[in-house]
Design brief:
alpha+beta, 5-stranded mixed sheet, 7 helices, about 30% helix, elongated
């Protein structure tokens, strides 16, 4: 089963999952969570994520942000053990289409895995040296903040419909715009006409 499939399965039993552990997403002990093969599933209102709500201009505050996370410890011989969190999150954000300027519902889905190390120095060093996402192990890790970071990074640069529901209206021409294609009178021809009149 893929991790996304596992997330869907877990979401169906999210209430049961919450009842079986005491893990709190905003104060997650990463080490304990991973060593107990913890699993956490939840839904949070979009209003809980201030930066995401700014992107929607305050719309959709009650929209659910669904997430699933599981922890594990991998033992890799001489390399020792590695602590991992595997995250999936999804939400449908009400954004503004930059083509027709109408509302567009943008489905967002992120699936990422993060390896955790003991110190900031190790995280900075190993994050540069490997393709893995390396974070620092904490006893009160804020999982919701990580979810918000990942969804923000996944936002499209230019949100738009695949096909806009209405044809895009052309903007009214700028009043200060000068159409170079309009023929202008030749100043020398005007001067010649003035000379002829004065000669008469």
């Amino acid at each position: 089963m893929s991790f996304l499939g596992e997330m869907t399965f877990m979401l169906r039993f999210s209430y049961t999952a919450r009842m079986k552990n005491d893990f709190v997403p905003v104060h997650l002990n990463v080490d304990t969570f991973a060593r107990t093969a913890g699993k956490l599933v939840g839904d949070e209102r979009l209003a809980r994520f201030d930066r995401l709500l700014e992107e929607t201009l305050g719309l959709g505050a009650e929209t659910p942000v669904s997430y699933s996370v599981r922890g594990e410890v991998l033992h890799e011989g001489a390399a020792g053990e590695k602590i991992w969190l595997h995250l999936a999150a999804q939400v449908v954000l009400p954004l503004t289409c930059q083509r027709c300027m109408g509302p567009v519902d943008m489905p967002m889905l992120v699936e990422r895995s993060f390896r955790f190390v003991a110190t900031e120095e190790l995280a900075a060093e190993q994050d540069e040296e490997s393709e893995e996402d390396v974070l620092v192990t904490r006893r009160d890790f804020n999982l919701l903040e990580l979810i918000e970071d990942e969804l923000l990074m996944a936002l499209p640069v230019v949100p738009k419909h695949d096909v806009c529901p209405e044809s895009v209206k052309m903007q009214v021409a700028d009043v200060d715009f000068v159409d170079e294609s309009v023929e202008k009178p030749n100043p020398f021809a005007v001067l010649e006409q003035l000379k002829k009149k004065s000669g008469n």
